[in-house]
Write a structure and sequence with these properties.
globular; five-stranded parallel β-sheet; Rossmann fold; alpha/beta; 150 residues
Length: 150
């Protein structure tokens, strides 16, 4: 379980290289985030079931980056289950996929994804995306002295 002041970026992706890229981008962008990786939807749902703290929709401490296409329980199924569960529904879930299909994007929003981001092909673009994500979801909880350098 995370503390009240620790921010967690939970990356759910079956490609270990994508997880490593996210972790590297967070480090290079100097973001004060813990990054945890899970390799499939079943692991995500087990992890969430073990959480005892109810999320605060006004001050989230965890954001999920969720790949759509994974073996076993895929991202769509996880998103559906998370948003249908009142104790999990307030956790921000961002679809993080290589798919640029309008159908995938529309379906993700219909399943109540908080955002949809196409995986960039460049580490500096990923750093920029993650910095924006950090400021959007966690920045309101920080004093000016805690903000990462631009």
């Amino acid at each position: 379980m995370i503390s009240d002041t620790e921010f967690l970026l939970l990356v759910v992706d079956d490609d270990p290289e994508d997880f490593l890229l996210v972790k590297t981008a967070v480090k290079r962008a100097l973001l004060p985030l813990s990054v945890k990786g899970l390799s499939n939807g079943d692991a995500l749902m087990s992890y969430l079931a073990e959480r005892t703290r109810v999320p605060d929709p006004l001050a989230p401490t965890m954001v999920i980056l969720l790949d759509l296409n994974m073996p076993g329980k895929d991202g769509r199924s996880c998103l559906r289950d998370i948003k249908a569960n009142p104790s999990l529904a307030d956790i921000p879930v961002i679809i993080f996929s290589t798919s640029e299909s309008p159908d995938d994007i529309q379906k993700s929003y219909e399943l109540n994804a908080n955002s949809y981001i196409c995986k960039p092909d460049d580490l500096s673009k990923l750093e920029s995306i993650l910095s924006t994500l950090y400021r959007y979801w966690f920045g309101h909880s920080l004093s000016p002295s805690q903000e990462p350098a631009p």
